[in-house]
């Protein structure tokens, strides 16, 4: 069994480009340290773990198809870019969900990744596509291709960005909740952190559905982010049971989101993909 897992992991790493590995190796860490409460485990990953998680997230978001690195859903008013499907709104578009791609552009610059001049300009002005039709019609444009190549060649750096986001978000999450819920959330988070392979579901889910603290990311006043998953978990100890319980809670939170969503959104169509994704949390990938 171990040899099979090792072989699968080796294949994942072999599929990564050299540029991706080099970019991750020199990734610049956040200059402002995040203060962690003493009872909250600080995230920490080895380079090997980061690379495996990077490829897994890429498969989650694109099914291994580079064409899916740049996507605009028919139900949404923003582009989704990169292995994390970072949100990027056009100029003057109301931002209901956390807009993450501008911060990813800044992360490229901080890590001395060369980006096109037009991307520097668009960072200040919003996504260059006003709607989905314009986005789809631009797929053969030079700028579109430049961005897709940049995203394809920086997969591991994007994962480092997710990890840094998780690192910065955990203290924010545990201080956001009412005091009576804090210990339950911290204990469940620490159980995942102490479990082999536990960082993957934490990193992937916060990238997938956010922190869960933004008031606009609610249906019927109920969120669907990492906060809600940790809060809805039953008390659990570190180990395989923590992965199973996190996956169960994530499934429940996502199903609740669909039940609460406006019928016109037709979010039920996403459930099979979401279910497949969170079921992947049950088994450690490392």
Question: What's a quick, concise take on this entry?
Answer:
The chain has helices spanning 2-14, 18-25, 47-62, 101-110, 117-125, 132-137, 142-152, 155-176, 179-193, 199-209, 226-232, 240-260, 271-279, and strands at residues 70-71, 79-81, 86-88.
By DSSP, the count of extended strands is 3
List SSEs in N-to-C order: HHHEEEHHHHHHHHHH
Total helical elements: 13
From the N-terminal CA to the C-terminal CA, the straight-line distance is: 13 Å
Strand order of the largest sheet: 1-2-3
**Sheet of most strands:** 3 strands, antiparallel
Could you say how many structural domains there are in total? 1
Mean of residue pLDDT values:
89
Low-confidence stretches: 1-26
Beta-strand residue percentage: under 5%
Radius of gyration: 19 Å
Secondary-structure content class: mainly alpha
Overall 3D geometry? globular
Helical content stands at 55-70%
Could you explain how this protein is built, in words?
The protein has 13 helices and three strands, in the order αααβββαααααααααα. The protein has 286 residues and is mainly alpha-helical. It has one domain. It has a three-stranded antiparallel beta sheet with strand order 1-2-3, with helices on one face. The two termini are 13 Å apart. Residues 1-26 have low confidence and may be disordered.
Topology, element by element:
Elements (H helix, E strand, L loop, with lengths): L1 H13 L3 H8 L21 H16 L7 E2 L7 E3 L4 E3 L12 H10 L6 H9 L6 H6 L4 H11 L2 H22 L2 H15 L5 H11 L16 H7 L7 H21 L10 H9 L7
Antiparallel strand pairs: 1-2, 2-3
